[in-house]
Design brief:
The protein is an all-alpha fold. The protein contains 16 helices and no strands. Helix 6 packs antiparallel against helix 7 and helix 7 packs antiparallel against helix 8.
């Protein structure tokens, strides 16, 4: 039996923060049409959203187990990944595969507790991740596009679990943001391998850091563009009124966070969200500033007359 610490490292609970996308429909619904919901309805929506969130935590850890088992030989060539539990020998391949399958089956069962639609989305997510691990992760750009689609499915699952309609604008924002972060991870892996003069090669066939740099520039621009277009759209104005324009005013903070993640990748510093929050003061300021600003804009009643006076 492998040590509990090694099992926890294999499950990567720190990366469960990525499943916050499941809760996005709840956050934006409660700031718009959900404002008039009674306490019983609000409680049911919150419970369903949290169940969906939990199911994706199980699924994410399950796929980490299976992915590390399948990539064990490749990971042993990478200066950072060689310390992962399976690659280092702390956890056997058989144990990782068994644990991964148990977690995936459990994730579908937990999603079904929220709704049949959420369980169907989870099944689709698992199938897509299976295709990713078998083939798609070795195809340039398709690899990160698949990862980004998985995050869109998280948001869709949150909406399906709680019965909340989801905006295509929200999905576009999620897609391009997570596409960018997927490329950040590719750049980090490549930068650290080059710095260590490792024999490890990018499995998706990216030529060099310059190619990734170009792709990151395009996707960062698309992320900010989708965010601003959503905030300025008629759809957002119908939901939030003048508050939507307040969201647009927070776009420089989004740009700051994107720039800092890019800089960390180019320096070979960890791409983990939790590591970035711990190590980078500007990322902490940007993320906390955007979260606080969004709360003020969407939920603080006195902001409405202020925005009405400030904006044309």
């Amino acid at each position: 039996m492998p040590p509990l610490q090694s099992i926890l490292r294999l499950l990567r609970p720190g990366d469960w923060t990525k499943n916050v996308f499941v809760l996005l429909p709840l956050v934006f619904w409660s700031a718009s049409t959900g404002r008039d919901a009674d306490s019983a309805t609000m409680r049911l929506v919150i419970e369903a959203s949290l169940i969906a969130f939990s199911s994706f935590c199980l699924a994410a850890s399950g796929w980490y187990c299976l992915n590390d088992a399948m990539d064990v030989e490749e990971d042993r060539l990478h200066p950072k990944k060689q310390h992962r539990p399976v690659a280092s020998g702390a956890v056997s391949v058989r144990c990782a595969v068994t644990l991964g399958i148990v977690l995936l089956v459990s994730s579908i069962g937990v999603a079904a507790m929220a709704s049949k639609a959420a369980a169907a989305v989870m099944v689709l997510y698992c199938l897509m991740q299976g295709a990713y691990n078998i083939r798609l992760k070795r195809t340039t750009f398709v690899d990160v596009a698949t990862i980004a689609s998985g995050f869109c499915l998280r948001a869709i699952a949150g909406a399906a679990a709680s019965g909340i309609p989801i905006s295509p604008w929200l999905l576009l924002c999620v897609f391009f943001l997570t596409l960018y972060l997927g490329l950040i991870k590719r750049a980090y892996d490549m930068t650290t391998a080059i710095a260590a003069d490792s024999k490890w090669k990018q499995r998706a066939g990216y030529g060099d850091v310059r190619e990734l740099d170009w792709l990151m520039g395009i996707t960062a621009a698309m992320t900010v563009l989708m965010y601003v277009m959503y905030a300025m759209s008629d759809h957002a104005h119908r939901l939030y009124g003048v508050r939507a324009f307040g969201l647009a005013l927070l776009s420089p903070i989004v740009l700051l966070a994107l720039q800092r993640f890019h800089k960390r990748a180019m320096q070979g510093r960890s791409d983990s969200p939790l590591a970035a929050l711990r190590e980078d003061a500007l990322i902490r300021i940007a993320i906390l500033g955007w979260a606080l600003g969004s709360w003020v804009v969407l939920y603080w009643a006195p902001i409405v007359p202020i925005l009405d006076r400030l904006l044309i």
